[in-house]
Amino acid sequence: MSSIYTDDSLALHTDLYQINMTESYWADGMHERKAVFEVFFRNLPFGNGYAIFAGLERILAYLKDFHFSESDLAYLKNELDFQDDFLEYLKGIRFTGDVYSMVEGELVFANEPIIRVETTLAEAQLIETALLNIVNYQTLIATKASRIKQVVKDEVVMEFGSRRAHEMDAAIWGARAAVIGGIEATSNVRAGKLFGIPVAGTHAHAMVQAYKSEYEAFHAYAKRHKNCVFLVDTYNTLKIGIPTAIQVAKELGDQINFVGIRLDSGDIAFLSKEARKMLDEAGFTDVKIVVSNDLDEYTILNLKAQGAKVDVWGIGTKLITAYDQPALGAVYKIVSIENEHGEMEDTIKISSNVEKVTTPGQKKLYRIIDRENGRAEGDYITMHDEDPTTEKRIKMFHPVHTFVSKFVTNFDAVNLHVKVVENGEIIYKNPTLNEMRQYAHDNLDLLWDEYKRSLNPEEYPVDLSQKCWDNKMRNIHDIQDKVDEFSSK
Ligand SMILES: Nc1ncnc2c1ncn2[C@@H]1O[C@H](COP(=O)(O)OP(=O)(O)OP(=O)(O)O)[C@@H](O)[C@H]1O
Ligand SMILES: O=P(O)(O)OC[C@H]1O[C@H](OP(=O)(O)OP(=O)(O)O)[C@H](O)[C@@H]1O
Ligand SMILES: O=C(O)c1cccnc1
């Protein structure tokens, strides 16, 4: 960086084209027109049956502080040649609109609006990049963590990924997202300080190497730390590492809490079983076995199938980088815009790829829950003026294969959108991270197991109301008519 700006803001954390488009809207007097944009993704990540939404807290902080600083404006003028009159407009711009959003920890599925932004065209356009940047990463990591936790079940998961995360921001926000997804602790101390996440850790091979022997290293560690987890695989796990941990623990007795040992290489199934036997025989039946080394949900499942005796899973690289699918692919699409007469008009994006055709109009999102069994029947997208909470019977049908349908009665329709920003004011109080985590955990009970399995889960229904579907078809036909008219000229 050529210099550090004391007034750096996040408004420039956007793609240049957003500012360029905004300039055109402004020059043509369209910038203040009302617009509705939605955030959604088209495919669930990791082949999972659900995702866990995360990122709202940071989005709200970003919107609250949204402004172009003096140095931002100077940069736009001096380096990118924006003109003074437009910069004067940017100088005064703040976020003044409304935002409806799912809450963090909510179960989210493909093709449903996670966030709805209703504000001026200019403001809505300028915030796109930051919103997607936040949602895409945090939701991806929360989902990966949840996937891992589904496999781990009752043992503890610690997040160890800071050294491999895609830079510092990703390390701490990733740790936070992983907690929402279900993990228990992080090794990143700053994440602990900023977000109140429990922080935990063991020690590295370097310490054993620095002291030249495990005996010296474990004693040195124990001298200053009451809770001890000794890393036992530096030279030979079964012949030196574990016996030394046991020896040191016996020598120190009540002076320490011999919490555990950590295995970080070799055959984890075999070594953990041997370690358990050795610890138990020495009377340390409560001592935990922590394992790490390139773990993810697949290795964990396999290790469990082999009968590995593991109490704590330390997971770094593959969680924090979402190793097997590095992007969620959430998008931000305009669905409605005010016309020159002050009326809202739906707008649609047509694509030869059916998947990419957007669903026009201002919409709401409900989760339909069967009152008898408490399980979710599916999610139901309606137009903004519909209210399924007052309906006795709704028809749910697949938005593409429409013949796949069912009538649902005796249900609760739960509105998944909370108004979080009103006229630019944040009106939502973020729950604690623990509450978000608990919410995500409890929500999973709404899903049948078929949607939760990590391999080839069933597709959870995300359906359009009849009115919403009709509106989409009408919009598609209108565009087709326009294309036909144009091409026949
Ligand atoms: N019993 C097992 N079954 C399946 N995979 C395992 C088993 N034990 C370990 N693994 C996994 O196999 C991968 C490679 O392990 P390997 O034993 O080669 O590590 P290592 O080379 O000994 O470790 P390092 O290179 O960190 O010293 C890791 O992802 C590890 O988690
Ligand atoms: O394997 P991960 O899931 O990313 O977990 C974090 C890893 O970080 C440490 O390794 P280190 O950076 O010392 O390198 P290593 O791979 O040689 O053990 C630790 O020993 C874990 O193995
Ligand atoms: O505390 C640990 O054991 C730890 C922390 C970060 C990375 N690997 C291990």
From TrEMBL:
| Domain Nicotinate/nicotinamide phosphoribosyltransferase stretches | 157-355
Give the free-text PTM comment from the record: Transiently phosphorylated on a His residue during the reaction cycle. Phosphorylation strongly increases the affinity for substrates and increases the rate of nicotinate D-ribonucleotide production. Dephosphorylation regenerates the low-affinity form of the enzyme, leading to product release.
Described by its record, this protein's role is as follows: Catalyzes the first step in the biosynthesis of NAD from nicotinic acid, the ATP-dependent synthesis of beta-nicotinate D-ribonucleotide from nicotinate and 5-phospho-D-ribose 1-phosphate.
Tell me what organism the protein belongs to: Sporosarcina saromensis
What keywords sit in the KW lines?
Answer: Glycosyltransferase, Ligase, Phosphoprotein, Pyridine nucleotide biosynthesis, Transferase
Q: In which pathway does it act?
A: Cofactor biosynthesis; NAD(+) biosynthesis; nicotinate D-ribonucleotide from nicotinate: step 1/1
Give the enzyme class: ligase
Q: What is this protein called?
A: Nicotinate phosphoribosyltransferase
Give the similarity note. Answer: Belongs to the NAPRTase family.
**Taking every annotated instance into account, which residue ranges of this chain make up the domain Nicotinate phosphoribosyltransferase C-terminal?**
362-471
Keyword Iron-sulfur: yes or no?
A: no
This entry's Gene Ontology molecular function terms read: glycosyltransferase activity; nicotinate phosphoribosyltransferase activity
Domain (Nicotinate phosphoribosyltransferase N-terminal) spans 12-136
What is catalyzed by this enzyme?
Answer: 5-phospho-alpha-D-ribose 1-diphosphate + nicotinate + ATP + H2O = nicotinate beta-D-ribonucleotide + ADP + phosphate + diphosphate
Might you give the EC number(s) for this enzyme? 6.3.4.21
SUPFAM superfamilies membership: Nicotinate/Quinolinate PRTase C-terminal domain-like, Nicotinate/Quinolinate PRTase N-terminal domain-like
Which is an annotated Pfam family here?
NAPRTase_C
